[in-house]
Amino acid sequence: MTQILRLRQRILFGKAIALGPGKAELLQRIGETGSISAAARQMGMSYRRAWLLVDTMNQCFTSPLIETAAGGKGGGGATLTPLGHDVLARYYRMQALAEAAVAEELAELEQYLAPTPPDDPH
User: How far from 113 is each of 7, 18, 48, 104, 118, CA to CA, in Å?
Assistant: First the structure.
């Protein structure tokens, strides 16, 4: 049987979500595209929302995870800093460790689930 439950991990710093699944995906896509706006488009979110997420992440750590260059004639862009690469890799390692640690419990929990998930998970 394929496991249908999954664990989603968020790293809280005070009341702020320093890193979670969406922010990790945004970091990864910024690293791949070199652009906050391209990453946001790929994720179906507004540039403003992506920028706010980037700003929160940058404020939560000792130095920025993403550096930006202003647009204009030469074009702008965004890159992951060495810290950004390190934080993203650590987040994915922690996620894998957490999933492995609770895999048996999740499999057992599945027996209590309804036949189909609700349309709106909120």
Answer: 15, 31, 37, 15, 11
Examine residue 1 and state whether it is found in any structural domain, yes or no. Answer: no
**CB distance 55 to 25 below 8 Å:** no
**Tokens encoding 105:** 């419990």
Residue 108 parent element (H or E): helix 82-109
Helix (H) or strand (E) holding 67: strand 66-69
For the stretch 26-77, pLDDT in tens is 999 999 999 999 999 999 999 999 999 999 999 999 999 999 987 665 667 9
What token pair was written down for 81? Answer: 């800093």
CATH of the domain at 91: 1.10.10.10
77 in a structural domain:
yes
Q: Which helix (H) or strand (E) holds 38?
A: helix 36-43
Which pLDDT score is estimated for 72?
60
